[in-house]
Each structure stands twice: as structure tokens, then as C-alpha cells.
Amino acid sequence: MTTRSQRDEEGRVIPLILVFTMICILLITGVIAVTSVHLSRMKLLDVSDGAALAAANALDEGTAYGGGVRGAVPLTDATVRQEASEYVSSRPLPGTLYGWSLGGRTGTPDGELAVVEMTGTAKVPFIGWMLGDGVRVTVVSRARADLEE
């Protein structure tokens, strides 16, 4: 024999399970989306690091032969941008990015340090349709080619 209070409680577990299941699915989806954007950022940073290393070794012949070489490979904004651009164009675009480009800060602040800024748009799985064109990611890499005497 069931009492009235036991009958009032019947059927309330299923909605509770459904609500908690939805919360878990939303959390998992959010974690997957954030992880995907972070991995896209790391791929962009890898290419930016390679471009900075290539640019740091890009000797500006006019400066080197005109004024000599001091403690590092002499650079100019033009040589850094050109080498970085060539390096980036030689790399395949990862499937997690819609596109990438060099940023405005790409160059050399002191004639010896190569700075490469890259901007890309990361694809976001599952919830990308809510964010429109993806998430914009910007990274900056620096490299310097020191010379030994």
C-alpha cells in the first residue's frame, strides 16, 4: 500500500536526470570549444615562432656591408616582413583555422630583434554558429640571431 506522499514523489527523478544531463552536455561542449580555440592558438604560435626565427636570420646586406656587423644579425623592417611572409606562405593552413595573416607589429624595434605578429581566425566546433565567423586569435613571437666573436 502506498501513501499519498509517496505518490506525489513519483516521476520527479526523470526531469532531474534530464536537467543534469543537459548541464553536463553543455559543460562538455564548452570545454571542447575552448580547447579547440587554444589548440588553434598554439598552431598559430608555432608558425609565428618559425617565421620569427627565419626573419632573425634574414641578413640586411645594405646594413651589414655598409655599417658592419655587431653582436647580432642586422635586420630591417622590410627584411623581417619579407622573410616572415615567405615563411608563412610556405606553411599549410591548419584545418582548425579559417585563415591567418601577419600583423602590423611585424618588424624590428632595434635592428637586431625580429618581432612577428600573426592574427588568425579559429574555428569553434559545436557552438561556432553562435559566434559567427569564429574567434580571432593574435600571437607575437620574437627571435634574435646572436653572433659569436
What are the main properties of this structure?
single chain; 149 residues; alpha+beta; 3-stranded antiparallel β-sheet; 5 helices; 3 strands
Write a short abstract of this structure.
By secondary structure, the protein is of the alpha+beta class.
Care to describe what's here?
By secondary structure, this protein is α+β, with helices and mostly antiparallel strands. It has one domain (7-66, 76-144). It contains five helices and three strands. The protein has a three-stranded antiparallel beta sheet with strand order 1-2-3. The longest helix has 44 residues, at 13-56. The chain is rod-shaped. The N and C termini lie far apart (96 Å).
Return the string of H and E elements.
HHHHEEHE
Q: Helix/strand-derived class?
A: alpha+beta
Strand residues, percent: 15-25%
Instruction: Tell me the distance between the termini.
Output: 96 Å
Strand numbers in spatial order across the main sheet = 1-2-3
**Overall morphology:** rod-shaped
Stretches where pLDDT is under 50 for at least 5 consecutive residues are: none
Main β-sheet description: 3 strands, antiparallel
Number of helices: 5
User: What is the alpha-carbon Rg in Å?
Assistant: 26 Å
Number of strands: 3
Number of structurally distinct domains: 1
- Kindly state the mean pLDDT as a whole number? 87
State the helicity in percent bands: 40-55%
Keywords: Membrane, Transmembrane, Transmembrane helix
Protein name: Putative Flp pilus-assembly TadE/G-like protein
Transmembrane segments: 12-34
Organism: Knoellia remsis
